[in-house]
């Protein structure tokens, strides 16, 4: 007899279950975190925890408020790497766990800080892990954060799945080394993200060459550039490459991040570039103002500055948008054509291209033809679509678009 209002009606799906106190707390906490980055890898030992901790420390040193959550429940290594010791305290008034403070801008939560014996083995099944991860987010006193970095165990098991379910707006940072065995596992991580609809912020290639401390020449320890090739092949963005630096191992062993010293070593230089790329891909302008979510431009706020994707065949635009072999992605700033990149799209799957081009921060498509459903999906990603463009070389199309002289005909949809 109760009215729709009194039953919290949910669009014909039957009465919605009341949210638990913990779920409400989780929602509240997640609202206070601007960017959630899940650091994952297909394979163990590729440097995922190191990358997560260096990103966290680096971002905190730029003045961003950062949380680092170690959900590698079976092999937590973050506290050791950052020299954090001791058990957590609980705030008695709010009954919230107080994260360890690395510096004024970086707080850390890890299962390690709940174990009396640091060598204790944690044996938990999936639902228990899910509950613990939820508690670590909802019942810890994180406050407002610009970034929450989550270090998950290698592979695509319970922990990354729990994060994907709990945080629908989290993005993945996938870490790999350049050799083929590691890259094969990266493909699994990429496919996992696509299955659970988690956007991929990009790939980090770690241990990409050793700088010899004696002659300063580079030795290709695990091969070279494999991550870059993989990123291109799988249509994900390469965020950066870090060289192998033996001091990373030593500093992790003594719990002192290399970022606590300044030098112009190749590792720290590459790390600086990587952090800048993470900031820029997260849509943050320097100075900390949130500009836009990665891949979520509202409209073209400046019609002379955009990132455009053009479906290509034989050096010119092709009408076969959904099945084109390659896209040319071009950066245009203030009417000037900049960086151009030819990328092979992932294998065709309904709804995949809008998400993929959104991840690449594209906000304009110039196409010959496209179905109305596809246009709708691109618009949902805030990507503007121009259809009916002629099969011309891409530079000509962009110049005409900039000059407002691009003549478009009928939407030559190839379906
Ligand atoms: N760029 C680097 N240069 C030198 N050593 C590195 C580099 N990155 C990571 N390492 C070292 O490699 C080892 C493995 O790194 P790390 O623990 O970060 O990997 P992981 O992928 O998180 O491992 P796990 O599978 O245990 O979760 C550590 O000893 C770390 O210090």
TrEMBL record:
Keywords: ATP-binding, Hydrolase, Iron, Iron-sulfur, Metal-binding, Nucleotide-binding. One of its GO terms (molecular function) is iron-sulfur cluster binding. The keyword Nucleotide-binding applies. InterPro entries: Di-Nase_FeMo-co_biosynth (IPR003731), DiNase_FeMo-co_biosyn_sf (IPR036105), Mrp-like_CS (IPR000808), Mrp/NBP35_ATP-bd (IPR019591), MTH1175_dom (IPR033913), P-loop_NTPase (IPR027417), YlxH/NBP35 (IPR033756). The keyword Ribosomal protein does not apply. PROSITE patterns: MRP. CDD domains: Mrp_NBP35, MTH1175. It holds the Pfam family Nitro_FeMo-Co. It comes from the Bacteria. ATP binds at residues 42-49. Residues 1-10 have a biased composition (Polar residues). GO terms for biological process: iron-sulfur cluster assembly. GO terms for cellular component: cytosol. Residues 1-23 are annotated as: Disordered. Residues 315-402 form the Dinitrogenase iron-molybdenum cofactor biosynthesis domain. SUPFAM superfamilies: Nitrogenase accessory factor-like, P-loop containing nucleoside triphosphate hydrolases. Gene3D superfamilies: Dinitrogenase iron-molybdenum cofactor biosynthesis domain, P-loop containing nucleotide triphosphate hydrolases. Belongs to the Mrp/NBP35 ATP-binding proteins family. HAMAP family: Mrp_NBP35. Homodimer. Binds and transfers iron-sulfur (Fe-S) clusters to target apoproteins. Can hydrolyze ATP. This is Iron-sulfur cluster carrier protein. It comes from Desulforhabdus amnigena.
